[in-house]
TrEMBL record:
Presence of keyword Methyltransferase: no
Glycosyltransferase 2-like domain location: 6-134
Organism: Myceligenerans crystallogenes
UniProt-listed Pfam families: Glycos_transf_2
Protein name: Glycosyltransferase family A protein
Length: 285
């Protein structure tokens, strides 16, 4: 066994989806030894029982308590704290790693990459494809690549040096903050080809609006924290264009659910940025 990799899954009420993710992880073919640590953030739906049942059948799976503080970054920190691996990978309980995911990530680890990100295959609840996105995103901050929290990883030493994930971020900007700090500390993120995860898009316009509203608030918080390091402010002139485009998507989308989803997400994101800007005493709309 060449290394021990820890796959950490923050979990809150994931009993319905966890089996699919755990089955996909345990079916991975990789030379390195690995473990799966499910950090339960206070589930009330039997998620812990699901993990315990898997752990009874396969010692590579175990659960840890992360219920002290509600929030995904608290669960991530608790999971990493209990993990035994020198290299940590993060994925979510309601998604599904694809064949070859772990092997591709292990090759990146062996090549010496400190922070990594894999592709997201975004799918609607009915299974139809929305998009496939690269393992790193540069739109928010072109000079600083960052991965998606649902498919990323890092050497344990990076987490220790940074002091873990910032638990004040909740629902938006949470993983971005960590990987921005990592980049500034000399640990840039590398996209890993072949390390893909099926990402389940939110179901229902209310859930979409809530998600993107939180993303918007997180964007303002990120800007407040990293503006002195060169993070760009969104161009003010784009706001009316984005709002107008969103309204077109919503009003003229007809039966095209994707267009309406996009419009709702755009409006909710800008509303979140407005609220976040007020809270952070900055301007990032």
């Amino acid at each position: 066994m060449t290394a021990l990799i820890s796959v950490v899954i923050p979990c809150l009420n994931g009993a319905r989806d966890l089996p699919r993710q755990l089955d996909a992880l345990l079916a991975q073919e990789v030379d390195a030894a690995f473990e799966v640590v499910v950090a339960d953030n206070g589930s009330g739906d039997g998620s812990r029982d699901v993990v315990a049942a898997y752990g009874a059948r396969d010692a590579r799976v175990r659960g840890v308590d992360a219920s002290g503080v509600r929030g995904i970054n608290h669960a991530r920190n608790a999971g990493v704290r209990h993990a035994r691996g020198e290299f940590v990978l993060l994925c979510d309980c309601d998604d599904e790693v694809q064949p070859g995911w772990l092997a591709a990530m292990d090759r990146a680890r062996a090549a010496g990459h400190a922070c990594v990100g894999g592709d997201l295959i975004r799918e609607l609840p009915d299974g139809s494809l929305v998009a496939r996105e690269s393992g790193v995103e540069r739109v928010t901050w072109p000079d600083v690549p960052r991965p998606f929290g649902a498919n990323c990883g890092f050497r344990r030493e990076v987490w220790e040096r940074l002091g873990g994930f910032d638990e004040s971020f909740k629902g938006g900007g949470d993983e971005s903050d960590f990987f921005y700090r990592a980049h500034l500390a000399g640990y840039p993120t590398t996209a890993v080809r072949g390390a893909a995860i099926r990402y389940a898009e939110r179901d229902g316009f209310r859930a979409i609006a809530r998600q993107y509203f939180n993303y918007g608030k997180g964007r303002a918080k990120l800007y407040r924290k990293f503006q002195e390091h060169g993070m760009p402010r969104p161009a003010p002139w784009r706001l009316p264009l984005v709002v107008a485009g969103a309204l077109v998507f919503i009003l003229l989308g007809g039966r095209n659910g994707r267009q309406r989803r996009r419009g709702v997400g755009l409006l909710a994101n800008r509303a979140g940025r407005l609220v976040g800007s007020w809270r952070e005493r900055t301007y990032c709309v």
